[in-house]
Amino acid sequence: MRPSDLRPTDPVGGLIGDPVATIRPTATLREAAEQLAADDIGLLVVVDAAGVRGVISERDVVLAIADNLELSEERVRDSASTDVLKVDENATIRDAAAAMNDAGIRHLAVSRNDVVTGVVSIRDVLAVLLQDMPTA
User: Fold this and answer.
1) Res. 17 pLDDT band, cuts 50 70 90
2) Is 120 inside a domain boundary?
3) CATH number for the domain including 66?
C-alpha cells in the first residue's frame, strides 16, 4: 500500500513493500555502502545461515568513515548493531513512530512471529502521520 492510503491507526505492516534487503556479516563495509546506495535505502538486515545477526545502517558506515576505518577491510559484523529493535506487523503506525522516537532510530524492523518481514523508515511513517494532521 502507499502511505497515502494508510492512517496512523493502521498496521505498520501495510507500509512494507520491497523484500527485506540483507547482507552477510562477512561482507565489507564498502559492499554494504554500495548496496545501500544502489538500492537507495538506509538499512540492511545482517543475516547468516542461523538467522538475523543485526542491522547495519548508513549511519554506521558514516561512523566507520569518521573513525578512519578501511571500508574495504572492515567487516559488517564489526560495525553492525546487534540489538535489533522490532515491532510486530500488526502494531499501529503510530506505535511504530513512538518506538522509533523513543529509541532515536530512523529505521525499524517489522516482524511476524518474531521473523523480520520488512523495514520501515521514519520517512514512511512520517508520510502517514503528516497527512492525518489538520492543515492551517
Assistant:
1) confident
2) yes
3) 3.10.580.10
Q: What is the pLDDT of residues 55-84, one digit of tens each?
A: 999 999 999 999 999 999 999 999 999 999
Domain coverage including residue 91: 3-131
In a domain, 136, yes or no: no
Q: Which amino acid is at 102?
A: D
Helices 122-131 and 93-103, packing angle to 10 deg: 130
pTM of the model: 0.88
Q: Which of 53, 71, 73 is nearest to 62 (CA)?
A: 71
Domain total in the chain? 1
d(CA 114, CA 119): 13
104 contacts 83 by C-beta, under 8 angstroms: no
Side chain identity at residue 27, one-letter code: A
Number of Cβ within 10 Å of residue 2's Cβ equals 10
Instruction: Judge contact between 56 and 32, C-beta under 8 A.
Output: yes
Residue 113: partners with Cβ closer than 8 Å, 6 or more residues away:
none
Question: What span, in angstroms and rounded, lies between the C-alpha atoms of 17 and 60?
Answer: 24
